[in-house]
Amino acid sequence: MTYNHILVPVDDSDISSVATQHALNFAKVFGSRVTVMSVVAIDPFVGVDFYKVAPAVTHHIMEAETHAQAHLEKLKQLFIDQGIDADIKIIREEPTPTGILNIADEVNADLIIMGSHGRSGLKKFVLGSVAQKVASESSIPVLIIKR
User: Which of 20, 70, 118, 141 is deepest in the core (most CB within 10 A)?
Assistant: First the structure.
């Protein structure tokens, strides 16, 4: 088995850094191309669009996107410095699992490597598990890196 294109969804967490390192190792072994991506969520209540978005919220979203872009550029360079072909993607205004799966389809990824925050109890009930949703809905292998 070989993996030609690895998708690596990331955020600012330590577990994302560990998942990125795993993706780097896989890409070296298999000679894979890598796409590193982030989802910039506007609001957990995305369907509630009848409220006007406050300027402070708009500013926060723009800052989050700028930060995500800088973070992804840094990770892209990490792969390039190791001789690995890499791209970056930012998804907006989609639930995180949907964004990840859509990008996997778009770039024709054949492996997703991502971290799991390991939420349990009430946090898992309220916030859900992105990794669990991606793994259960993906048509390609998903390697979930845990703490």
Answer: 20
**Predicted TM-score (pTM) of this structure:** 0.85
Number of domains observed in the structure of the chain: 1
Residue 3 CA to residue 32 CA, distance in Å, equals 6
CATH number of the domain bearing residue 107: 3.40.50.620
Measured distance CA(128)–CA(100) in Å, rounded = 15
Which range marks the domain in which residue 109 is found?
5-145
Buried b (16+ CB within 10 A) or exposed e, 94-103: bbbbebbbeb
What would the pLDDT profile of 118-144 be if each residue is shown by its tens digit? 555 544 444 458 888 999 999 999 999
Structure tokens, 117: 């925050």
